[in-house]
Amino acid sequence: MTDDEAVLRCQDGDREAFRHLVEQYKNPLYGTAYLMTGNAAQAEEHVQEAFLLAWRGIKSFQRGRPVKPWLMRILVNAVLAQQRKRSLTTVPLEETLPVGAPSSGVDSIEASEDREAVRQALAQLTPEHRQVVVLRYFADLTVPQVARSAGVREGTVKSRLHRALRQMRELLEQSGVMEVAGNGA
Amino acid sequence: MARNDMPDQEMERKLREHFAEEAPDLQAPDDLWDRLESRLGKQDPPRFALLRGGASAIGSMPWIPAAAAAVLVVGLGVGAWALAGGTGDSGDDDDDGGAVAASSDERVEPVREAATQAAATEAAAVAVEEDANEATEAPAVQEAAATAAAAARAVERDTSEEATPEAVSTPEPTPEPTPARAQATQPAESETPAPESSQARQPADDAGAEAEQAEEPAEPEEMADEAMDDAMDMGDDMAMDEDMGDYDDMADDDMAADAMEAEEPAEAEEEKAAQPQRPSDTTFEDYERTTFVSTDIDAVSTFSLDTDRTSYFLALTWVNNGYTVEPDSVRAEEWINAFDYGYAGPGDDDRFAIISDLVRHPLDGEWHLARIAMQAPDVRDDRPLNVTLVLDASGSMSWGDRVAIAREAAETIRQSLSARDRIAVVHFTTGVLDRYTVKHSAPDNEDVVWSIEQLAAHDSTNVQAGLNLGVQLADEARRERPDAYNYIILMSDGVANVDATDPFAILEGAPDSDSRNPLRLITIGVGIDNYNDVLLEQLAQHGNGWYRYLDDTAQARETFSRENWLALSTPFADQARAQVTWDPAVVKEWRIVGYENRITPDHTFTQNRREFAELPAGTATTVFYELVLHEGVSLSALLGNVEVRWVDPATGDSVSQTAAVSGSTDTPFDDADRLLRLGAIVGLAADRYSSLSPQVENAAVDYAGIHADLSALQGRLRLLEGSLGSSQAYLDFSFLLDELTAAAAELAPSSGYSQ
């Protein structure tokens, strides 16, 4: 079943078709939510909420449009709102956020160290910068889609991405995971 | 190699690889669907239904004037946008409010079988209540019901105090989106036994426990909070990025732009998916758009003043929730009047400041744009208030946090009242829920507090029943305290479905017989989907009041904070309207921007009609006219005059004030005052967008022209970024205009138009 067929059937109230969409997109949504929140329970709740909203809006969804960016926008709205509320009462996110998947324990030591270094670098980013990085490189959205999902302008997304990548490079250079740019050139 | 020339691509590759490695460990739970399905409810997804002409008679009426609202504080440069705010002060202490249906005196002491007694008393109250619902006009029956209800209330309160935490169940949170018809079929775990349903006659043993459950309001999802948070965050982001002193140099920017250009073409199609959707089950009225009028035919323009701003905040809420703004929901005058243009006050307490300007039109070099503004003085009145809260407790209020918002607004109003004021509470669903009815009492009366706390979603919606009792109580209070202003505040999503559902029929069913000291009907809208804008707007417009939309609990607190409430509750002008007479020797053609449902026949201008606007103190009405002037008009032109008429609420006297409309014919738009330019862009954007009609085949709609106008207005707005860019209001509107422009292209027919 294509997404377009699923949407059409959903618009007729077909739950199995909606289940198809859920199964299709639950992982990228969950991963994005997890990377933004660092909390599995919260991530699942946000994903459920996003799908609930999607079910509500499916009849007005214009057929032929890709589903994923639409779902991602709904998800990000939910996550951001929750983060803002939590930020008023909890410690800064970077102090608690693992910013990575729970270790599967199968990596080589070197690979594991590299992954951990990237995770730590991600954790050093501000929530705003981390958000656009996750949406762009994990959720694989385009810059305009990231802008729409995050509720900011494309220029803002670009500048955040640029700053985030620059900061991460510096951190990874310091940790030895990446070579210092310009060396050997 | 320069450092900035290469790191991005390498880091991008590194990140993609990293996330690819992480992805297998970031899997959603296998049983996500099972858990999700149980939350979907039993309903089909809601169907988008634009109920054009839902209030049948309204659209065909050639004139429908007046309602007003006060300036909520949209300070641009001079104040705060103020969408978030603190809780209002506590109300002043005063006496008890002995008028409350004997509840204090007849309160039953807590007993161990409280639950059983509560159930029995509740059943009795329900029985009386049903009778009362069948004859809401009968004061004696109402009184009996209120008395029985008060007794039930007392027991209920006491029972609640006795209940163990385990005994009080919290209903499953209900997201905003759940459609109305689902409410009727869903189990009653989140609903109080409805007085007119079979549930009301359950065995007493069950009823007690059910009552406990029912009084626990639904825990809301926080869609509305999120929307406004998003808006605030967006503004913060923009301000931060645009104010960054260390913002990367042009090379960085160019590099990013190059990267964008490289990826955009291939992804353009996918990007369209992010286009927002439309809210469902909403009711708006498509008022006929005004056209240019030759002064040879008609040189007089008459309209009711208006300071409502609901249409703008609805639109802002929608785009922040990922929806497309419904063109029929856009009333340009409410968008214009959502902003505070910082007009100077009149200096006198008994007249408006009338301001006029003329600039070249931003969209057509041959035209001009005239702005006329009427600023009411910020006066205060020491007359006390009689406030009657009429609260929608219908099933649709369980969506999202509607109940929480209404409850917060009601409580904030209560706290903002002074000891000299009186407040009554009415809950309505299929009928009036008499056990929650509290007659006019002091603001700190515990029954008032309790009744507001108990607001919850129940059954279907009978606005007529709620307003009937509200008017009855308000009328009684007015007779007892003739020196007080009388406000009836209806809080609802407007989805009336029992008894009268048409605003005129509802108002006819709850008539106000005293025009010298009128009842002022304020309507407060809550909710996104399943929302009836027409009903709430028209009730206020024809109920001598004003209409406001609340997006979240913070906005509820801000809107009715003590400071704002003092201004909102001080009427400066009743039945306020204006008449502009253009000089045919100067003005060739004119067109009013917006105000389609405020335009009134010229001959009614001298008549005092309750449907004209009620203006609270300190509010301003701004109107723009598109003008075609005759050639050869002098640089400093007297274009005509404007007369404002109104009724002084304190004296009942009719008042008139006239001023010239003039300005320089050669002022380039971009040289004009920045706030004038903002208002013009706001008004014209709303005006153009509102003329889109996606629901009907209309070959006459100039989609390409509208899109071009919106794009041009985007450009004009960008020029204001330097002076207004740090304002939240500017940022919000800028985002909204971007969405409108994108949506205009989306709403266009697929054939015959390309961007």
The CATH H-level superfamily of the largest domain in chain A is: RNA polymerase sigma factor, region 2, helix turn helix motif
CATH architecture of the largest domain in chain B: 3-Layer(aba) Sandwich
Count the domains of chain A: 2
Largest pleated sheet of chain B = 6 strands, mixed
Shape of chain A: elongated
**Number of helical segments with 4 or more residues of chain B:** 23
Q: Briefly, what CATH class of the largest domain in chain A?
A: Mainly Alpha
- Which CATH class of the largest domain in chain B applies here? Alpha Beta
Helicity of chain B, as a percent range: 25-40%
Mean pLDDT of chain A: 76
CATH superfamily annotation of the largest domain in chain B: von Willebrand factor, type A domain
Mean residue pLDDT of chain B = 68
Distance between the termini of chain B: 41 Å
> Unreliable stretches of chain B, pLDDT < 50, 5 or more residues?
1-7, 43-149, 155-276, 694-700, 750-755
How many strand elements of chain B? 18
The third-level CATH topology of the largest domain in chain A is Rna Polymerase Sigma Factor, Chain: A
Q: Major sheet of chain A: size, sense and barrel closure?
A: none
- Helix tally of chain A equals 9
Pair of chains with the largest interface and how many residues each contributes: A-B, 86 and 81 residues
What is the end-to-end distance of chain A?
A: 51 Å
Share of helix among residues of chain A?
over 70%
